[in-house]
Write a structure and sequence with these properties.
Layout lengths: L1 H4 L2 H32 L6 H15 L24 H5 L7 H19 L4 H12 L2 H6 L6 H16 L5 H15 L5 H16 L5 H26 L24 H7 L2 H12 L5 H11 L10 H17 L17 H17 L3 H15 L7 H27 L1
Helix pairs in contact: 2-6, 2-17, 2-18, 5-6, 5-8, 6-17, 8-9, 8-10, 9-10, 9-11, 10-15, 14-16, 15-16, 16-17
């Protein structure tokens, strides 16, 4: 039994099997929300209150200068909502908006795993286990932009990991930074974190033309929203307040920063919501801290370079998360603000699994974590049969290609 457990071929088979299962999970979730989005109108809450109205303000031209008597909350930055506009124009189900973002995020997470040296199978499992957490699944049938924020964040990491000297590269990099900054008030924080981590890499590539190509989209797509709000309302983060710049009464965002409200409210409530939404990956943070403590002296070794960079990024995001504004009741839905935190810490656990040759164990735990979260979905037996049938057809017709892909 011990020989079988340590057999590398057996371990590879288990990882590959988990990869196949993860692909089925992704297909089922996609089909389930595609069907749900088709038969279900948009719900109430943030989507109804400001995400859809922000998208509609593009069509009316009001996004440039909103009327004073309009809903205050549609003054939030609206770059991600621009991708909701085609759904409105072409009368597509609005509940497909985040499903599209989810699909893009899954693809980018697979690319991220591959970039950091995970196999195709482990990369798919990594993408699946995050994208099937409760917190992510809750956002798919909405018009909220938190999934899209994760898309811009992961997309930027992939771009920054592969720097180029071309103007086209810097223009695209500026567009993604601009969208990140111009989508949510947390965007500038993440932009600063990414800048701190990758600036040293980019210093040799900076030229006047590259900087111009980089800065123009950042100003037009990102900083524009803060200038608009300041000129219209006297505060760049309207309807929130910032220092002496006052927004609407009762929405003093700095008073609700995570580091302020945890000590004054209920730490247990936060941890309960955090663990319930991300399950096993909520514990990736203390595990990463333990690894740093145990390997601090080895941090300058060559084979640690990528892992150390990812760890630094993760901890800067952790510090940034402490200044995000949360509801004092720590509603489970608020955990969507922490996608940018959980993604790199989850990836670190996969990389540690590879480093210590426990890929099989990580794959099994990650797949189980994804399977548990599937109970969030509504039960539609016909959909299950359909997805099983599709999976069987794909497996039979593309078995060799899939096996070869998952073995890489």
């Amino acid at each position: 039994m011990q020989k079988i457990a340590n057999d590398p071929h057996s371990n590879q088979y288990i990882v590959k099997a988990c990869g196949f299962l993860s692909l089925f999970f992704l297909l089922y979730v996609f089909c389930s929300f595609l069907y749900y989005g088709t038969i279900t109108p948009p719900g109430l809450g943030d989507s109804h209150d400001y995400h859809v109205p922000i998208a509609e303000s593009y069509l009316s031209g009001q996004f440039l200068s909103l009327p004073k008597n309009i809903n205050s909350y549609i003054n939030y930055p609206g770059m991600s909502e621009i991708f909701l506009v085609p759904f409105i124009v072409f009368h597509l189900p609005l509940n497909w908006f985040c499903l599209l973002g989810w699909g893009i995020l899954v693809f980018l997470l697979i690319k991220l795993g591959r970039h950091f040296g995970l196999s195709n199978a482990l990369s798919i499992i990594f993408a699946t286990t995050f994208s099937l957490t409760y917190s992510v699944l809750r956002q798919i049938p909405t018009q909220s932009i938190d999934i899209w924020m994760a898309v811009w964040f992961v997309g930027l990491i992939l771009l920054l990991e592969r720097p180029k000297t071309t103007i086209k590269y810097f223009l695209f990099l500026g567009i993604l930074f601009g969208i990140l900054i111009g989508s949510k008030y947390s965007g500038p924080l993440y932009a600063i974190v990414l800048g701190i981590i990758y600036l040293k890499k980019f210093k040799p590539l900076i030229s006047p033309k590259n900087m111009l190509a980089f800065m123009i989209p950042i100003i037009l797509l990102g900083i524009f929203w803060y200038i608009r709000n300041y000129l219209s309302w006297g505060t760049p983060i309207y309807p929130g307040s910032l220092l002496f710049m006052k927004g609407i009464p009762g929405l003093d965002l700095p008073n609700y920063m995570l580091w302020k409200i945890i000590p004054t409210t209920n730490l247990f409530s936060f941890l309960e919501a955090f663990i319930s939404e991300f399950l096993i990956w909520a514990f990736s943070i203390p595990l990463a801290i333990l690894f740093i403590v145990m390997n601090y002296k080895k941090r300058k070794q060559k084979n640690m370079a990528e892992l150390v960079r990812l760890l630094l990024l993760s901890f800067l995001v952790l510090l940034s998360s402490l200044v995000l504004s949360f509801k004092p009741t720590f509603e489970a839905s608020n955990m969507r603000y922490l996608f940018q935190l959980i993604i790199p810490f989850t990836l670190i656990i996969f990389l540690l699994g590879k480093r210590y040759h426990v890929e099989k164990e990580v794959a099994l735990i990650a797949t189980a974590n994804a399977a548990v979260a599937l109970n969030y979905l509504s039960y539609h037996p016909k959909l299950i049969v359909l997805c099983l049938g599709l999976s069987a057809v794909i497996y039979i017709t593309k078995k060799n290609a899939l096996s070869a892909f998952l073995e890489k």
